[in-house]
Amino acid sequence: MEVAYYQSALGAIEITASNGGINSLTFVEKIPDSFSNSTDFGEVLQQLDEYFSGKRKEFSLPLTPEGTPFQKQVWKELQSITFSEKRSYLDIAIKLGDKNLTRAVGAANGKNPIAIIIPCHRVIGENGSLTGYAGGLWRKEWLLDFESRSPQEKLF
Length: 156
Fold this sequence. Notes:
By secondary structure, the protein is of the alpha+beta class. 31% of the residues lie in helices and 17% in strands. It has helices at 42-52, 69-78, 89-95, 102-110, 137-148; strands at 2-8, 11-18, 21-27, 87-88, 123-124. The protein has a 3-stranded antiparallel β-sheet with strand order 1-2-3, with helices on one face. A two-stranded parallel ribbon has the order 4-5. Helix 3 packs across helix 4 (102-110). The longest helix is centred in the last third of the chain and has 12 residues, at 137-148. The termini are far apart.
C-alpha cells in the first residue's frame, strides 16, 4: 500500500492506494515531517487541487474501497450525487429500492473510506439537518458551503 498526503483548506489529508486504485482518503492531524509524495499520486493531487480551487466538480480516479457489498452499493450511489446537490439518507434508501434501509444507508455512509471523492458530505438528514461526518461536522458544513458558491465566489 502506498501513502500520500495533501494539504487542503480543511487540513491535512492522507491518501492510500493499492491494487491500482485509491483505498482511502481521510483527514489527519498533520502531514509527517519530511514526507515526500510519490509521483504515482500526481493525478490524485492534481484533481484535489482542481476541486479545492473550484475548477473540478467530478473526480475521475480509480477507486478500490474495501467494504461489504451493501456498503459498496451505497458508496456507488453516493457518487451519483452531483456537485452542490444534497440528498437525504431516505433518498438514498429509496434509490436502493427500500425506504426501510435508511439506517443502514447512514451506517454505510459513515464507513465511507474515501471522503470528498465519494461525496458522503452531500448526504443530510431528511429535515435538512447536517448529521454526522467522520471528518467533523464543521468540515461537512464547509464542503457544502464551498460547493454551493458560484465559481466567482471561490476563495481559493
